[in-house]
Amino acid sequence: MLYLNIIIAGLLTGLVYGLMALGLSVIFGVIRVVNFAHGEMMVMAMYAVYLANTFTGIDPLLLLPLVALALFGFGYALQRLLINRYITRPEHEQFLLLLAVATIITASLLMGFGPDARNVQLGYAYDSFQIGALLLDKVRVFAAAGAAAGTAALWAFFRFTRTGKAIRACADNHFAAQVVGLDVKRLYAVTFGLGAACVGAAGCLMLLLVDVQPYISTDYTLLAFIIVILGGLGSMPGALLGGVIVGVSEAVSGFVIEPSFKSAFSFGLLILVLLVRPQGLLGRA
Amino acid sequence: MRGAGPVALSPRTALALAGFVAIMVVLPFIANDYIVSVLVVVLFSAYFGQSWNIITGFTGQLSLGHALYVGLGAYTSAALFVHFDLSPWLGMPAGMAVAAIAGSLIAALSFRFRVGGVYFALLTIAFSEFVRILFDHFKWVGATEGLFLPVANLAHDDPLHLRGSPTMFYYFLLALTLGVLGLSHLLLNRRVGYYWQAIREDEEAAQALGIDVFRCKVMAMALSAALTALGGGFLAFYDNNLYPDTAFSLGRSIEIITAPIIGGLGTLFGPILGAFLLTSLGETMTNLTSGWEIAGLKQWFYGAALLLIVALLPSGIWPWLRRVIGLEESGR
Amino acid sequence: MSAAPILEVRGLSKRFRGLQAVDGVSFSVPKGSIVALIGPNGAGKTTTFNLIAGAIRPDSGSVLLDGADVTGLRPDQACHAGIGRTFQLVKPFGALSVLQNVMVGALHATGNMREAREASWAILERLGLAERAETPAKSLTLPERKRLETARALATRPKILLLDEVMAGLRPTEIDQMVRAFADLTRETGISILLTEHVMRAVMALSHHIVVLHHGQKICEGAPEQVSRDPQVLECYLGHAPAGA
To answer: Biggest alpha carbon distance in chain A?
Structure first.
C-alpha cells in the first residue's frame, strides 16, 4: 500500500512536470529553438507567485491565470525582440543566446531574493484526502488538477482556435505556412508566449510542492528536455506521459534506492531513449 | 556550425605569437602573486577551451558535458596519488586513458545511433550528470565529502609530485596551453584536421569523399576528452580538493565552453583570447563589486557580456579582431 | 575503349512508401565512356545515382564496379571502390577555401599533404578555378560551386564520376566550357562518366550513350541521335506522340 501511495504521489507530481515539459514541447516542436532558459522562466514564475502570495495572501492556484498571462507576455516579447533572429543560426549560437538569458534571469533573481529557499505558506499544506487506504496530499492533488486543466486548455486552443491551427501548420511545414500567407513571425511569438505561459502555470503549481531557490532552474530545464524527448517531440500527450513516467520513476527510485539517485534515474532514462528510440514514446518516427 | 579552415601562420602572426610567448614566460618575474594566480585561471580556461574546441569547433559536434572529462582526469590522478602514492606523472596519463575511453564510448554510442545536433549535446549533459551522481556515492574517492590531497608546501616546488607554488603551475599550464595550440595547428594542417572540418561543414559531402565520418568523430572526441582530462589532473593538484558537484557540474561544462565561443569557435587563437577576456571581465567585476557583496551581480554582468557578444559578434571576437588589426589569413 | 564495362547496374529497384522510384533499372557504362541518364522530373535519375553511390540502399538489384560488387556499400566505401559523385544541391565546405575543398578530396587518394596540394592545383586549373583557389567556398557563385563540386569529386581519383545535373543554371558559354573540360578529361585520363542532365545541349555534345528513364523504368537507350528520335522518348517528354510520328 505504501508503494501505491508513492506511485500515485509520483504520478500527481508527474502531471505538473508534464505541464512544464508541454511548454518546452510547444516551443521546441514548433520553433525548433533549444530553449535553455526554460527552467529559468519557471523559476521566475515561482518567485512571482511567492511575492504575490506573501503580499496579498492569495492562493497560488488563484494567481495562476495572472502569472500565466504575465509569462505569456514575457515569452512573446523575448521571441519577438531577441530570439527571432537566431532561428536559422547554428545551434551553439542559439544555445549561447538562451544561456545568456538564463544567466541574467538567475542572477537577477539571486540579486533580488538572495540564495535562500522560499516557499508559500498554505493553510492546507498538511491536509490529505483519504480514499480507502490511499492517502493523497491535498497540495499534490490540487497541483495535478491544475496541470490537467492547463493541459486541457492548451489542447483546446490548438484544436479549436484559428491561431492554434495556424501554429500547428507552421510546425508541420514552415515554408508552406509562409506561402499560404501566415504571419510566421507573429505565430512564433505567440507560440513562445504559450510555452512560457505553460511553464509559468507549472511554476505556480510547482511552488505548492517544492521550495524555490535561484539555482534549481537548470535541473528543471534538463528535466523538461528529458520529458520531451522521452515522450516524443511534437506530441502533447507524449509530454504528459513523459512527465508521469519521470514523476513515478523519481518517486519510486528515490524511495527504493536513495533520494539523491532520482535524477540519475532520469538521466539514465534519457540516455536509453536517445539511443533506442530517439523519437520518443509517442513521437513520430 | 561555423569555423575556419587551416592555415599556415603568416610571418606577422608568427611574430605576434612569439612576442606573446616571450611576455608570458617573463611575466611571473615582474608580476605579483595575485596576477600570477589570475593568469593560472586564464591558462586553465584557455587550455580547456582549446581542448574542447577540437570536438566542437573543428569537428562540429556540440559537447555540453565536457566537465565529465575534467572530473575523470582529476579524480583518477588524485585518487591514485592519495591511495597508492602514484606519481601524478603516471596518474595523469591514466586519467587521460579513462577519459578517452569514456569519450569514445559516448561518441560511439551516440553516433552509431545517429544522435546528432542538440540531442547529442543533451546526451553529453546526461552522461556528465549521471557520472556526477555516481561519484556522489563513490566512497573510495570521498563521495560528497570530497577528496583531499595532502596540503602542499607552497614555498618549496616539487614538480615531480606536482606540489608547489602557483608560479610552478603557471609554467606547466603555459606549456600545456602552447602545446595544445601547437597540436591543434599541426592537426588542422594534416589530413585528419581537413577531414574533421569537412565533417563539420557537411557530413554527407564528407562521406561521399571517402571519409569514415563515424571513426573521425569518435577519434576527435577521444582526443578532446584525453586532453581535457590532462588539464583536469593539473587542476586537482592545483586546487588540492575535489568534489563531484564541482568537478562534474554543468556549471563547469558551461564555463569551459564560454571562453572559446566568445573568443571564436573553431579558430586557433579564439579560446586563448576568450580566456583572457572572460577572466579579466570576471576579476574586474569581482574587484568593482567587492564592497557591495551582492550575490549574483558578477553573474549578471557575465550573462550580459555573453549576450552582447552573441548579439554583436556571433563568430567570436578573434575573427573580428584580426580583421581589424589586419592579420587576415586565408580561409580564416 | 575496352569491352568490359566499368559500371554495371542490374535490376536496381527502390520503393519509397507509396512510390516505386526506381523499377528494375539495368544498364552499363563502358570503360572510358560518357553515359547520360535522362528523363523527365521524377523519373528516378537522382535516386538511381544515390543507389549507386551508396547514399541509399536498394531494395533489390546489384551494382558492379569494374567487376566488383559494390551494392549497398556506404558512401565512403563506395568512394574507396572508385565511385566519385557530385550532389544536385551543391554541398561546398563553406568555411574552407576552394583549394582546401579540393584537397579534402585529394587526401582520399594520398596521405601526403604536398602531393594532395599539387594534385588539387592541377584539377583547379583543369576546371578553371585556379584564380579562386584561396577564396572561401561560401563566397563562390553557383556555377563556380558546381565546378568546385566536380573538382572535389575528381580529386578522389575515381574510376567513374557521377555528375548530378552539373550544367543546371549555367550560361551557354559556360556549358560549352564544361563540356570541353569533361571531354578532355575522359580522353586524357580514361575516367568514365555517368551524368544526369536536363540541359540537352550538354547531353548531346558529351555523351557516347544515353539511357532514358521514365517513372523509374528504363524506356530506351542508345546513341544520342537514336534516342533523340525515339517516339517513346519524345512522348514522355512532350506528353504526346509527335505529329506525323
So the answer is: 59
Cβ separation of B110 and A226 shorter than 8 Å? no
Residue from the list B201, B213, B330 with its beta carbon closest to the beta carbon of C134: B330
Tell me the average pLDDT across A236-249: 90
Q: What is the pLDDT of residues A161-208, one digit of tens each?
A: 888 888 887 777 767 777 777 788 888 899 999 999 999 999 999 998
Could you tell me which CATH class the domain A2-276 is placed in? mainly alpha
Same domain, yes or no: C194 and C97: no
Boundaries of domain holding C205? 1-82+158-245
Q: Which of A224, A188, A241 is nearest to A36 (CA)?
A: A224
Last residue of a domain, one of C104, C121, C155: C155
Cell numbers for C235 = 512522348
Do B204 and C74 make contact, defined as CB atoms within 8 angstroms?
Answer: no
Please give the angle made by the CA atoms of A152, A154 and A155, to the nearest 5 degrees.
Answer: 65
Q: Kindly report the CATH number assigned to the domain that includes residue C237.
A: 3.40.50.300
**In this complex, is the C-beta atom of B137 within 8 Å of any C-beta atom belonging to chain A?**
yes
Same-domain pairing of C9 and C125: no
Neighbours of chain B (3+ CB pairs under 8 A): A, C
Pairing of strands C5-16, C60-65: antiparallel
User: Average pLDDT over chain C, rounded to whole?
Assistant: 90
Q: Average pLDDT for residues C42-61, to the nearest whole number? A: 91
Residues (pLDDT < 70) of chain B are 1-9, 152-156, 291-293, 327-332
Q: Which residues of C fall within a CB distance of 8 Å from B195?
A: 104, 107
Q: What pLDDT digit, counting tens, does each position of A45-60 carry?
A: 999 999 998 888 888 8
Identify the chains in contact with C, defined as 3+ C-beta pairs within 8 A.
B
Residue C176 lies in a domain: yes
Q: Which residues pair with A135 in a beta bridge?
A: A130
Residues C122 and C31 in one domain: no
- B123 and A CB contact within 8 Å: yes
Residues C164, C245 within the same domain = yes
Measured at the alpha carbon of residue A227, what is the angle toward residues A225 and A228, in degrees to the nearest 5? 65
